[in-house]
């Protein structure tokens, strides 16, 4: 991923000039992102339940804010099991910071360690669990998760990429952070074989990794076998060959590190803000559904106990107006009682037109059929109460749509909006549920036959 291209795309989306280089805008960008992160953390409009549900993500925002203030650049070391991720991290650090083992799955948690050569620049490596380990879905999820909140990724392979590895690389590239592809265990190949494999990898990863970022390394070289003058064999340890990768990594950190840090934090904060918005919308919808149901029950039982003509059901707007007032508070769009009354009148007028023109008489006949057949007051009352219930659902959902849109019916007006609400609800299932619930409650009253 080219940082300049990413930055220019972000600037265009914000209608800002695109000719600044990342290094030239790092400081103002970091200040702006830090301010946005702090505002997200301090946002008092986020309900406690939503904040608790997204506690891990909010904690990450706090970590990112701290990271911005410390000028740290986090680099995830990612790849398949046994590709040599931990060994590469140790070689880059020049010390045994990460555990290296011969068994699959040595790394079970993300382990950060500051890169010695870039301590002043705040470069931090994060070793991650290997992907594609049998039964290791949780570890793979952790590895992807760490990569998504890191600023840069070193993807470690030890040969040609499998389909699963290439898919994982595409996933990483889609997270919009630069990726370096390290071909580890390069000492297993002859010079011509190694160069051919590098060329092949550059071709397969075109558009995902820049050609200059596909680099051969040898994190844990095979010891050189030597025979002394007496014919005694011994193994001579070899030094890791990671200089090219280290130089490339440090060059990126010096040139683009601060901008990468800020861009990644901004992208994550944007995703979290979207998640918060979605969770708040879901929470509001759930609360609104409870409010609507409470009023449906109250109105349905009241009508069932004291039946009124079907033609007057939609005119009984008192409870509906009170419901709309509560819904307006749920959605943070408060309405006065007078405003809610006008809104109910608008919705009711559209419903009367729809019901009278299309199915109102059929619905009434179906709900009230058999009145002359000796049915009990409970049954006939429940049928009429079900109509009142259904009308309240329609009014509540239409009002909800109006409030979600910022007190607007949209360009097509209330007629289209209400018609779409009616079309989107399952009338028969609502009536069936209403009858069953009203009957259940009415039959508790010993005064009824």
CATH architecture of the largest domain: 3-Layer(aba) Sandwich
The helix count comes to 14
**Spatial ordering of strands, largest sheet:** 2-3-1-4-5-6
Radius of gyration: 33 Å
Distance between the termini: 76 Å
Query: Helical residue percent?
Result: 55-70%
Structure summary, number of beta strands: 8
- CATH superfamily of the largest domain, by name, is P-loop containing nucleotide triphosphate hydrolases
What is the 3D form?
Answer: elongated
Order of helices and strands: HHHHEHEEHEHEHEEEHHHHHH
Number of domains: 2
Task: Extract low-pLDDT stretches.
Answer: 6-23, 310-315, 357-375
Q: What fraction of residues sit in β-strands?
A: 5-15%
CATH domain fold name of the largest domain:
Rossmann fold
Mean pLDDT: 78
Largest sheet composition: 6 strands, mixed
CATH class of the largest domain: Alpha Beta
Structural class: alpha/beta
Write the layout of secondary structure elements.
Layout: H1 3-13, H2 22-42, H3 48-53, H4 55-70, E1 73-79, H5 85-93, E2 111-114, E3 123-127, H6 137-148, E4 152-157, H7 163-174, E5 179-183, H8 191-204, E6 214-216, E7 224-227, E8 233-236, H9 243-305, H10 318-330, H11 337-368, H12 377-404, H13 413-424, H14 427-442
Parallel strand pairs: 1-3, 1-4, 4-5, 5-6
Antiparallel strand pairs: 2-3, 7-8
Helix pairs in contact: 2-4, 2-9, 4-9, 9-10, 9-12, 9-14, 10-11, 10-12, 11-12, 11-13, 12-13, 12-14
Written overview of the protein:
A six-stranded mixed beta sheet has the order 2-3-1-4-5-6, with helices on both faces. A two-stranded antiparallel sheet has the order 7-8. It contains 14 helices and eight strands. Helix 9 packs antiparallel against helix 12, helix 11 crosses helix 12 (377-404) and helix 12 packs across helix 13. The longest helix is centred in the middle third of the chain and has 63 residues, at 243-305. It has helices spanning 3-13, 22-42, 48-53, 55-70, 85-93, 137-148, 163-174, 191-204, 243-305, 318-330, 337-368, 377-404, 413-424, 427-442; strands at residues 73-79, 111-114, 123-127, 152-157, 179-183, 214-216, 224-227, 233-236. It has 449 residues and is of the alpha/beta class. It starts with a helix and ends in a 7-residue tail after the last helix. Helix content is 59%, strand content 8%. The model is unreliable at 6-23, 310-315 and 357-375 (pLDDT under 50). It has two domains: 3-275, Rossmann fold (3-Layer(aba) Sandwich), CATH 3.40.50.300; 306-442, no CATH class.
């Amino acid at each position: 991923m080219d940082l300049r291209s990413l930055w220019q795309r972000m600037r265009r989306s914000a209608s800002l000039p695109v000719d600044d280089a990342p290094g030239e805008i790092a400081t103002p960008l970091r200040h702006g992102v830090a301010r946005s992160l702090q505002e997200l953390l301090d946002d008092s409009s986020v309900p406690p339940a939503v904040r608790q549900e997204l506690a891990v993500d909010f904690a990450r925002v706090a970590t990112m804010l701290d990271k911005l203030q410390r000028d740290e650049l986090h680099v995830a070391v990612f790849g398949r099991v046994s590709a040599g991720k931990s060994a590469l991290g140790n070689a880059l650090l020049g010390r045994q910071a990460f555990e290296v083992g011969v068994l699959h799955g040595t790394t079970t948690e993300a382990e950060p360690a500051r890169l010695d050569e870039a301590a002043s620049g705040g470069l931090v490596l994060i070793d991650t669990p290997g992907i594609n380990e049998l039964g290791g879905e949780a570890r793979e999820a952790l590895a992807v998760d760490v990569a998504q909140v890191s600023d840069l990724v070193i993807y470690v392979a030890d040969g040609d990429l499998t389909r699963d590895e290439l898919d994982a690389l595409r996933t990483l590239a889609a997270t919009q952070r630069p990726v370096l592809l390290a071909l580890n265990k390069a000492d297993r190949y002859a010079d011509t074989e190694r160069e051919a494999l590098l060329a092949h990898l550059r071709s397969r990863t075109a558009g995902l990794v820049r050609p200059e970022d596909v680099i051969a390394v040898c994190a844990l070289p095979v010891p050189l076998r030597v025979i002394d003058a007496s014919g005694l064999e011994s193994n001579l340890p070899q030094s890791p060959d990671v200089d090219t990768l280290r130089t490339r990594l440090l060059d990126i950190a010096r040139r683009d590190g601060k901008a990468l840090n800020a861009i990644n934090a901004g992208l994550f904060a944007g995703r979290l803000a979207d998640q918060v918005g979605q969770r708040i919308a879901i929470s509001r919808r759930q609360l609104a559904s409870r409010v609507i149901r409470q009023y449906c029950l109250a109105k349905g039982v009241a009508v069932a106990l004291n039946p009124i003509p079907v033609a007057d059901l939609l005119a009984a707007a008192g409870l509906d107006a009170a419901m709309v007032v509560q819904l307006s508070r749920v959605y943070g769009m408060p309405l006065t009682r007078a405003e809610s009354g006008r809104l109910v009148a608008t919705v009711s007028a559209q419903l009367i037109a729809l019901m009278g023109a299309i199915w109102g008489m059929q619905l009434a006949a179906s709900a009230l059929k058999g009145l002359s057949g000796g049915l009990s007051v409970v049954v006939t009352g429940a049928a009429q109460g079900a109509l009142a219930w259904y009308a309240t659902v329609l009014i509540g959902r239409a009002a909800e749509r109006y409030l979600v849109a910022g007190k607007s019916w949209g360009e097509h007006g209330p007629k289209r909006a209400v018609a779409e609400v009616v079309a989107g609800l399952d009338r028969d299932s609502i009536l069936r549920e209403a009858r069953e619930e009203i009957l259940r409650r009415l039959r508790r009253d010993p005064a009824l036959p």
